[in-house]
Design goal:
Helix content is about 15%, strand content about 20%. It is of the alpha+beta class and about 200 residues long. The chain is elongated.
Length: about 200
């Protein structure tokens, strides 16, 4: 199978071939050529090889393909980072994770697992709403109290949040399961355990 020319990235793989391109109002397939072997795309051999070039404005979507998505709403997110004493303001599309969008804008926020399973990126919502269907690291009870995880949180409106201490959130979530209070770190026991390896 011949490779697609580099300039034909508009509709690769649509309807019947690796290099199919649709052009014009009649939605008939064109014949693509390039530095590689020319490919007939209509299923029949052309009478003679021709070079057809489609400008970007002429390219249209293949019949039966989904229409372009409507514009995704964006929301202003304000994060008060208690640990660093910094306030970050940035815009996040409604269908994007807050943490990922912040990182794409060179904003550093706390995180660990990136899968919604821990409490490193936990925040307390001051105003607005965050949708977080994949947040396994915090209970439904904590979510009702206004806690959210930035790594799996989508903004549903403009939102203002404050980062939380991971240990505090962990204690709120699991502290009732410890009979004598928080578990203290035992460095001596840790050294012994590491020495056995």
């Amino acid at each position: 199978m011949a490779a697609c020319p580099a300039a034909t990235t508009a509709r690769v793989g649509a309807h019947g071939g690796p290099c199919r391109l649709w052009r014009g109002g009649d939605r008939s397939p064109n014949f693509l050529t390039g530095s590689a072997t020319s490919l007939p795309l209509s299923g029949r051999r052309p009478a003679r090889a021709t070079r057809t070039r489609a400008s970007a404005s002429e390219l249209q979507q293949a019949p039966g393909a989904a229409a372009p998505a409507a514009t995704i709403p964006t929301h202003k997110v304000t994060v008060h980072d208690r640990e660093r004493g910094v306030v970050h303001e940035f815009v996040v599309p409604q269908d994007q994770y807050i943490l990922h969008t912040a990182e794409a804008q060179d904003i550093t926020l706390p995180f660990a697992c990136r899968h919604g399973c821990c409490t490193s990126c936990a925040v307390r919502i001051k105003s607005g709403q965050i949708r977080q269907p994949e947040a396994l690291g915090i209970s439904a009870e904590l979510r009702e109290q206004g806690y959210a995880l930035l790594c799996v949180g989508y903004p549903s409106s403009d939102v203002e949040v404050e980062t939380q201490d991971e240990d505090e959130v962990y204690w709120l979530q699991f502290g009732r399961y410890f009979a004598r209070g928080p578990v203290d770190r035992d460095d001596y026991a840790l050294e012994l355990a590491m020495g056995d390896e």
